[in-house]
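Q: Given only this backbone (231 positions), what sequence would you predict?
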């Protein structure tokens, strides 16, 4: 049976679990918090050392933010991180996204300004390596009834059509919608194709009776509202 390295020989102040009990979770470093979640190490490294490797894995010096865009194969590339530990870490990242969303807009989900939409999607979308195109669908009271992923694309484009968008809108009986997509480059400035597609979608919405309220592009801690730009 493989022996796991432990931190039993360390002073209590250097052992994350014991330190958490004595001082509270808020006193722990990112690596210490993560080491408590993954619990055990490997033959070569204890859980704290594995945690430090995970936080340095993406190479972008983002630390704990890097957890939001790591994949299971990337996590499993670290010796001592198997499928179970990898899935646990992915679930932690997803929980953090959902907590952020709930904090940004508590239920019922009503969005009255572009900044609210941007805040709601910022942590989800600014870390993505590919473009995603989403539609927020609303009822008559401007409450979000569905959030639909329409397409995933490349590092600089997605492919979607007004037909696909309004099929989803009508299926959910939406009366209005907001489009959201990200620019992996981090620059949210709309391209010419972004503007032309928005106009096509807006005109199609007039025909089917579903109003396009806005199209918001998410960058890295920034956004552009095409409605605010008059586009």
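A: Predicted residues:
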């Amino acid at each position: 049976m493989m022996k796991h390295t432990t931190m039993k020989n360390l002073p209590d102040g250097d052992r994350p679990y014991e330190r958490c009990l004595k001082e509270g979770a808020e006193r722990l470093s990112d690596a210490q918090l993560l080491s408590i979640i993954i619990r055990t190490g490997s033959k070569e490294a204890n859980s704290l050392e594995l945690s430090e490797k995970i936080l340095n894995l993406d190479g972008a010096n983002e630390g704990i933010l890097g957890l939001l865009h790591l994949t299971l194969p990337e996590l499993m590339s670290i010796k001592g991180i198997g499928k179970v530990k990898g899935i646990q870490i992915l679930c932690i990242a997803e929980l953090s996204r959902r907590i952020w969303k709930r904090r940004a807009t508590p239920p019922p989900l009503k969005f009255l300004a572009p900044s609210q939409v941007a805040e709601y999607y910022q942590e989800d979308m600014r870390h993505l390596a590919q473009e995603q195109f989403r539609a927020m669908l609303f009822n008559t009271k401007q409450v979000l009834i569905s959030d639909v992923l329409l397409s995933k694309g490349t590092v600089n484009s997605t492919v979607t059509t007004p037909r696909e968008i309004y099929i989803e809108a009508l299926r959910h009986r939406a009366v209005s919608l907001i489009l959201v997509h990200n620019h992996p480059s981090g620059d949210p400035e709309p391209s010419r194709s972004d503007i032309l597609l928005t106009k096509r979608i807006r005109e199609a919405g007039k025909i089917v009776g579903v109003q396009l309220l806005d199209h918001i592009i998410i960058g890295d801690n920034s956004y552009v509202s095409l409605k605010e730009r008059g586009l």
